[in-house]
Amino acid sequence: MRVLGGRAVQAVLVALLVGTACFLMVRLLPGDMAYRIAASRYGYDLVDSAAAEAVRQELGLDRPWLVQLGAWFADLSRFDLGTSLASGEEVADALRIQLGHTLLLSVAALFFSLLLGPPLGVLAGLRSGGWLDGVLLALSAALRAVPAFVLGIGLMLWLAVEWEWLPVAGVGGWREVILPALTLALGLAAASCRVTRDAVAAVAASPFFGFARMKGLGDTAAFRRHGLRNAAIPVVAYLGLQLVVLIEGVVVVESLFAWPGIGHALVHAVLGRDIPMVQGTALVMGLLFVVLNALTDLACWLLDPRRRTA
Amino acid sequence: MTLSRKRLLGGAMLAAVAGIALLGPLHGVDPLRQNLSDALLPPGGAYPLGTDHLGRDMLARLAAGARLSFGLALLAALLAAVAGTLLGLLAALRGGWAERMLLGLADAVQALPALLLVVLVTAFAPGAFLPLYLGITLALWVEFFRISRNAAAGVLARPQVEAARLLGFGTGHILRRHLWPEVAPLVATLFAFAAGTAVTTVAALAFVGVGARPPVPEWGSMMTELLPYYAEAPLALLLPALLIFLTVLGLHLLAGRERA
Amino acid sequence: MGLPLLARLSLAQPATDTFRVVTSQEINGLDPARSGYVFTRLQVVETLLGADDGGLPVPQLARAWTLSEDRLTWRFTLRQAARFHDGTPVTAEAVVACLERARSQAGLLGNLPLASIAAESGAVLIRTSRPFTPLLAFLAHYSMGILAPAAFEGQAVRTIIGSGPYKLSRLLAPQRLEAERAEHWDGQAPTIARLSYLAAGRGETRAAMAEGGQAELVAQLAPETVERLRRNPRVAVDIRAIPRTRLIKLNCNLPLFRDIRARRALSLALDRQGMAAALLRSPASTATQLFPPAMAEWHVPGLAPLRRDLAEARRLLAELGWQPGAEGILRRDGQPFAFTLRTFSDRPELPGLATAMQAQLRDVGIDMKVAIVNSGEIPAGHRDGTLEAALMARNFSLVPDPLGTLLQDYGPEGGDWGAMGWSSAALHEVLDKLGATDDPAERAALRARASTILHEELPVIPVSWFDLATAMSRRVAALTVDPLELSFRVAGARWVG
After folding, report:
1. What is the DSSP letter of B215?
2. Where is the protein found, in the record's own terms (chain B) (predicted)?
């Protein structure tokens, strides 16, 4: 429980740090903010100097930056994230929708990757150096080498256009989540397959495992009895890390599959200098990181009896 | 497959990529020269690997891109590996407040979305590739830090290491004898994949409209540029990916271990 | 072998009675000035007037209008039975409130010579401070969309309550919305009961949706995908030229571009045909002058077409004192002929075109760098004078009458999306006269004069005209494409069979 208390302190620190850092970085960027905000509000056909001037007046961009940052923190302490400079929507409302969609996508991707990665990793690890091990290594290198948009287009053309199994893109029903989740899952599975394989190979090479097999247990039985729990710890620790990476990796997939997620929104907000939106998004992602870290700690603690007494 | 054969295969893959880079000057075609009426030609004739959407020679562009991407990706991964591993070992050896500080720093960097970090860094110098890759280094080092710290902490807790300490062996000895053999292979594996990640991250950023600067041939932005032509010229789109694949797998095999 | 069986397990969206529209434009806020085009094109929100394919005003919320003797006061009578989607009648007061709100905001209406907007015995009265015929066209713009009083909370728009044949039923900004037949619609009920809108930013995604039969209307097809879709039996591809031109804006204050011969040389170096064929996949979109033939009133067939002539370009540059230097780059007084062109990727073809032009200009010794920026950096650079050149796409039907756009772009101070450091007294005179007269013969002569001045002086260099490529499912009939992009016209379409 002390660990969780530490995480709560961390959460507050993250909020302060992320909010300030985002604000300063966006303010320091070259280029006139008012024009960029006007461009993201009205589109490239209608952005002009009159619109930019109106934006500057309306948002008080001429105020000293310390005053503006102070206003944001004052609002934050009342749990008010402000309104988006571009759409005029409440940042909190926008985030609720976008974060929800990104989480849905991430959980689905994680689920698919768990179906694919670890089981293959176990098989490869038990026969490390075998042909399956080699093929899986090449495959995971290939998945690292192909950018997500190429993979996504490939799956889209194959599963949605050619075979018509799934919707090409969009949002609204449960079917739409499958293709983008699968695109993400392949990359994730490649990574988790490697980690599992390494962990299992280490367990398989350990003396206690060899002993279990001398007792006459088959490979599978020996692994189930003695290997699974030991191999699971690094995999779980790694997945916690991956989930964070995943939430960022979604930006490409979200753009490609027209998915209203947080990664896509963050890039647009940075490009359009929508400071409250950047701060809000980064804040939520930072806090999510803290939560995931806490969950990972908890999962490892449950898996490893030795740590429970420590 | 034995270790030496793995290394041989890995070396051959890297040699192939290096060969492409060296072929460029021999081929003697300007990677920027365009000929719009020759757009998207398949390999053959005057263009050994075909042309891109502006009728530029793919071989010349891949070769020029190899020098740029290969160099910068390795540089980004190398910087991240050196910084991350050193800090990781430092944290494990020192422990105490130094370790807590470094862990806090790693947490802070990760709490700030890496994507945001890279996008912001590149926004300061739009279109330049070096800051782009250095921005990626900022995000990559954390993984090296965590892996090396965790591995080192595990090794240091072993009885034989404690015994070595009691016997009066210095930090240098423990580092050489006990830590390095355990940590190096992990770092090497991570390094192979980090180099690949660096190039695909550049591609992903170019895809969302960040960091591209025509007409410089860079593998990541080449793939983004060629994406719209996936149906007409799939080979042109996949060639850069193939080279990244050879790089990643080659590095991985070269750094390979017998077990685990 | 197993495929037909597997295909039956399809999870793809089954064909429904929903008309699915896919475009590239995200729904970025509810305010009519922001993403108003989404709601007006889907016929959820109406404007006072519409425009026909030729840009002439047609009734929409206003069923008729008159102009006073002094040509200063316009009187619009509203459709009597018109109701907002919340059941309240569309009153002149509600219309005036929306127009006043649009006028107070940055945007089109703010720049007009308006004296007053008022409601008078059920009609809307608009007074201008001088005779101003393009007003009717401005009223068709989406930022002048009319919402019910209940849609507002203070000055902010909280929900979309329009008066069109469809009403909003679900909104998932920025990607998707759904709409259904409005029960209070006073016209003929549309045959198609439901529609959905999806913003898919990537051309590849939109093409795949059309290809897979997962959309009834896909707008803004990427040029690379058009050929393939044409061969697809499921869809009909409509290509039509629209009043939009891709052009290079030059900072004529720079010594590089001040002389007309330098601008002409630049223009002569461009391979417009090559780019139109290879990148835009539409040889007919090669620009030979600023205004495309689709703008029949402004296009002058007799003008000598813009062409490529490298020898002539080199000759003009030599005449200006430019001599080849190191690596073939031209130099004059020790300075290279080098500049930076800004462009943006919101229109995905622009970076590719800029890259192609970079190589073409390099052939005559001009060193052009390309910077891909946010679209706002172009007007910003215009204002602070740092812009050297920009590649952009200018929409001349922003208001259905192009005169409105020309007044903004080529006025005495130039315009954010028009001339920079260039002005022509002759052109101002012509444009002023155009705003004040409605004699057709005189107007035609004046328009031709304006086009000719722009063609000869080249304050901006036209690169290519614009094709609007739309894929329409063969499951629907009676669907037409609006060249002015004011409406998707779903209400007039019906299902086949």
Report:
1. T
2. Cell membrane
Q: List for chain B the helix, strand, coil content (%; round to 5).
A: 75, 0, 25
Q: What is the largest CA-CA distance in chain C?
A: 78
Under a CB-based contact definition with an 8 Å cutoff, are residues C103 and C117 in contact? yes
Question: What does the radius of gyration of chain A's CA atoms come to, in whole angstroms?
Answer: 24
**Angle, helices C92-104/C32-41, rounded to nearest 10 degrees:** 130
Structural domain for B149, as ranges: 3-29+48-255
Order of strands across the sheet with C335-336? C323-324, C330-332, C335-336
ipTM over 0.95: no
Burial class (CB in 10 A: 0-12, 13-18, 19+), C495: middle
Would you give the DSSP letter of residue C278? Answer: H
Tokens 């000895």 correspond to: B173
Report whether the peptide linkage leading into residue B215 is cis, meaning its omega lies within 30 degrees of zero.
yes
Distance between CA B104 and CA B114 in Å, rounded? Answer: 16
In a domain, B185, yes or no: yes
Distance (Å) from the alpha carbon of B3 to chain A's nearest alpha carbon: 10
Nearest to C221 by CA among C233, C234, C209: C209
CATH of the domain at B165: 1.10.3720.10
How far, CA to CA in Å, does C100 sit from each of A271, B77, B90, B180, C36?
32, 58, 67, 74, 16
Q: How far is CA A257 from CA A112, A264, B229, B232, C199, in A?
A: 18, 11, 18, 21, 10
SS3 C454: helix
- Residue to mutate among A32, A137, A149, A186, with most B CBs inside 10 A, is A149
A193-226: pLDDT as tens digits: 887 887 788 777 777 777 777 776 666 677 776 6
C-chain residues within 8 Å CB-CB of A171? 172, 175-176, 198
Residue B1: list chain A partners with CB under 8 A.
129, 134
**CB pairs below 8 Å between A and B: how many?**
136
Chain A residues within 8 A of C33 when measuring between CB atoms: 41-42
Task: Please write the tens of the pLDDT for every residue from C436-494.
Answer: 887 889 999 999 999 999 999 999 999 999 988 999 999 999 999 998 889 999 999 99
User: Beta-carbon neighbour count of residue C239 at 10 Å?
Assistant: 17
The pTM (predicted TM-score) of the whole model is 0.87
Q: CB C276: neighbour CB atoms within 10 A?
A: 23
Consecutive sets of 10 residues in chain C, 497 residues long: mean pLDDT of each? Answer: 41 68 90 90 95 88 94 94 94 94 75 87 92 85 93 90 95 90 92 94 91 92 91 93 93 95 96 94 94 90 94 96 91 94 89 94 94 87 93 84 85 88 93 85 93 95 94 93 91 89
Distance (Å, whole) CA C420 – CA C423: 8
Q: Per the domain annotation, does B52 fall within a domain? A: yes
> CA-CA distance, A212 to A226, in Å (whole number)?
8
Half-sphere exposure of B53 (CA within 13 A, CB side): 29
Q: How many domains does chain B have?
A: 1
Of the residues A14, A99, A102, A144, the best mutation for testing chain B's interface (the one with the most B CB atoms within 10 Å of its CB) is: A144
3-state secondary structure B75-131: HHHHHHHHHHHHHHHHHHHHCHHHHHHHHHHHHHHHHCCHHHHHHHHHHHCCCCHHH
Which residue is it, tokens 């030609």? B41
What angle (nearest 5°) sits at the alpha carbon of residue C479, between those of residues C478 and C482?
135
Residue B43 falls inside a structural domain = no
> Whose CA is closest to A251, among B145, C478, B119, B75?
B119
Peptide bond into A180 cis (omega under 30): no
The pair phi, psi for residue C305, each rounded to 5°, is: -65, 145
Residue B42 lies in a domain: no
